[in-house]
Amino acid sequence: MNNEFELIIGWLYPTLMSTYGDRGNVICIERRCQWRGYGVKVLPLDQNATVSDIGGVDLIVGGGAQDRQQEIVMRDLQGAKAEALREKIENGTPGVFTCGAPQLLGRYYEPGIGERIEGLGLLDMVSVHPGENARRCIGNLVVEVTASRLARDLAEMTGSKAFLIGFENHGGRTKLGKVEALGRVVYGLGNNGEDGGEGAFYQNAIATYSHGPLLPKNPFVADWLIQTALRLKYQQSITLSPLDDRLAMQAREAMFKRLKVNLPNVAAANVQ
Ligand code: GLN
C-alpha cells in the first residue's frame, strides 16, 4: 500500500446529477487510485453538505441532470456553498464537470421550459435550451483537446496528441465568452453544433458535454486529474505508475473505427 497519499473526491449532488452513466467517472477515479494503493474517499456534495465539506475535497466530479433536477441544484448551490466551490476551483482543485454541471458553473442556463437560472458565473459561458421542439444533441463525440495547458500535459503523459471519445446528450447550446474551449469537435456536435468548440477548460476544471464513460474511455484524463490533485495536495512532483489500459485502448480504437474517424497514430495514441 502506498497510503501515505489519500484523495477525497467530492461528488456534486449524486442523486440529482448523474445521468447517462456519469457515476462511471467517479468509479474510474476511485479504482485508479485504489489500484495504485492510494487511499480514496467519495464525499457526496449535496443539499446536506457543509461549506467545510466542500473546502476539504481534493477533486470534484459533477454530472448531468434533467432540467428539473438541474434547477433544484442551481437553487441549492447559492451563498456560502457556491462561494466555497468557486474558491476551490479558482485555487486549482481539479474537476470534471459534465453537461448540466458546466451549465451551472457558467453564467446562466435557460431551460426549454421555464425561467433562466443563474449559475455560479465561474466559467464565462452561457447555455440556452432552444425549446422543447428543438432537436437534442445526441450521439458519439470525438474531440481533439486544444486547451493549451491540458493538451500539453496530456501529450507529456501519453506521448501523443490527446483525442477524447465520449457520448453527448443535451438540449442546451453553450456559447463561450472568454473561457478557453476544452477542444475541437472531430465527430459530433459539442457546445452548440455550430462553432466546432467543445467544453471549456478553466484553472484545472474540465467542462464537457461528454457523459460518464468519459474517464473509463479516456483513462489518461482520469490520471491527469489524480496527478494534478496529488501534486496540489502534497506539493510534490508525483508521477503516477502506469496501469494496464489495453482494454480501454482497444475500445477506443474500435470506436474510432466504427465512427470512421481517422486519426493520426490512433493505435498508438494515448497508450502509456
Ligand atoms: N438539462 C441540460 C440540457 O439538456 C443538461 C442535460 C444533461 O445533463 N444531460 O442541456
Automatic annotation (TrEMBL):
<dbReference type="InterPro" id="IPR029062">
    <property type="entry name" value="Class_I_gatase-like"/>
</dbReference>
<dbReference type="GO" id="GO:0140282">
    <property type="term" value="F:carbon-nitrogen ligase activity on lipid II"/>
</dbReference>
<feature type="active site">
    <location>
        <position position="211"/>
    </location>
</feature>
<dbReference type="Pfam" id="PF07685">
    <property type="entry name" value="GATase_3"/>
</dbReference>
<comment type="pathway">
    <text>Cell wall biogenesis; peptidoglycan biosynthesis.</text>
</comment>
<keyword id="KW-0378">Hydrolase</keyword>
<protein>
    <recommendedName>
        <fullName>Lipid II isoglutaminyl synthase (glutamine-hydrolyzing) subunit GatD</fullName>
        <ecNumber>6.3.5.13</ecNumber>
        <ecNumber>3.5.1.2</ecNumber>
    </recommendedName>
</protein>
<dbReference type="GO" id="GO:0009236">
    <property type="term" value="P:cobalamin biosynthetic process"/>
</dbReference>
<dbReference type="GO" id="GO:0009252">
    <property type="term" value="P:peptidoglycan biosynthetic process"/>
</dbReference>
<dbReference type="InterPro" id="IPR043702">
    <property type="entry name" value="Lipid_II_synth_GatD"/>
</dbReference>
<feature type="binding site">
    <location>
        <position position="136"/>
    </location>
    <ligand>
        <name>substrate</name>
    </ligand>
</feature>
<comment type="function">
    <text>The lipid II isoglutaminyl synthase complex catalyzes the formation of alpha-D-isoglutamine in the cell wall lipid II stem peptide. The GatD subunit catalyzes the hydrolysis of glutamine to glutamate and ammonia. The resulting ammonia molecule is channeled to the active site of MurT.</text>
</comment>
<keyword id="KW-0573">Peptidoglycan synthesis</keyword>
<comment type="similarity">
    <text>Belongs to the CobB/CobQ family. GatD subfamily.</text>
</comment>
<comment type="subunit">
    <text>Forms a heterodimer with MurT.</text>
</comment>
<keyword id="KW-0133">Cell shape</keyword>
<dbReference type="InterPro" id="IPR011698">
    <property type="entry name" value="GATase_3"/>
</dbReference>
<dbReference type="GO" id="GO:0071555">
    <property type="term" value="P:cell wall organization"/>
</dbReference>
<keyword id="KW-0436">Ligase</keyword>
<feature type="domain" description="CobB/CobQ-like glutamine amidotransferase">
    <location>
        <begin position="9"/>
        <end position="218"/>
    </location>
</feature>
<keyword id="KW-0961">Cell wall biogenesis/degradation</keyword>
<dbReference type="GO" id="GO:0008360">
    <property type="term" value="P:regulation of cell shape"/>
</dbReference>
<dbReference type="InterPro" id="IPR033949">
    <property type="entry name" value="CobQ_GATase1"/>
</dbReference>
<dbReference type="GO" id="GO:0004359">
    <property type="term" value="F:glutaminase activity"/>
</dbReference>
<keyword id="KW-0315">Glutamine amidotransferase</keyword>
<feature type="active site" description="Nucleophile">
    <location>
        <position position="99"/>
    </location>
</feature>
